[in-house]
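Records of this kind hold a single protein each, on a pair of labelled lines. With that in mind, the following record should read easily:
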Amino acid sequence: MTFLSEKAMHRPSMMAILFSLCLLSPALTACTTNTTDGGAQTSLSVPIKNADILYGDKRDKLSTIEKIYKSNPQDQLIAARYGKALREAGKYKDAKAILLPLSKEDEIATFANTELSAVHFAQGNFGQAEKYARKAVKADKNNYRAWRNLGNALDAQEEYKEGEEAFDQALKLWGDEDKVPVMNNLALNYAAQGYTDKALSMLYEAQKLDPARVEIERNIRIIRTLNEPPEYRGEKKPLPANRPPEE
C-alpha cells in the first residue's frame, strides 16, 4: 500500500485542494427500505409519485411543489418534498423551518434528518450535519444517502477513518442509482489518509462506470501528483495516458 511521504502530508496547498474536493455538495435524499431484523429503523410506505422524488435523484420544481404544499399543509410527504425543494434552491432557512418539525415524526424522520444534514453541510455547519445524518441512520440504518451525508460531514471535520466507514456503508447499501459520486468521495477520503493506491483504484473503478465524468479524471491527476516533492522545479512533463494498471 502506498502512503504519502512525510513531505507530501505537510504540503498545505495540495492538501487544501484535496480537502476542498472532498466537500462535494451532498444533494441527497433519503432512501426507502424494507427491513426484517426488528432493529431501530423505519421504512416508509409511499406512493410511487412520492418515492421517485424523495428517494431518487428527481427534483420537484419549487413553484409547483409550493402550491401543492399550501393546498395540503398537513401531508408530511408533501411537506418533505417541499423542504427538499427549498434546500435544493438554496433557501436553507425556509427549508429548516419545514424540515425540523418533520424530523421528529417517526414515519418521515429518516428523510427529514437526511435533508437537514444536507442543509447544515451546505452552510458549513459540519458538526450539525453529522448530528442530523446520525439521526437519519438511526431512524433507518439502510438509508444509504444518510450514510453518504455522514461520510461527507466526518471528512469535513478531518475524521477520516469514521468517514471511510460511513462511505463504505453507503456503497454496500447503494442500489441501482449512480454510485460514482460516493465512490469519488471515498477515493478522496483514502487520499486524505495517505492511501494513494487505494484512492486511485477506486477512481479507476468509478471511471469504468462513467468514463465521461470529468471530476474523476481531474481527481486521478491530482492524486497522482500528491507525492511530488515541493522543491521540484524542473520542467513538468505531461502525465502519461490515464489508464488503470494492467492486471
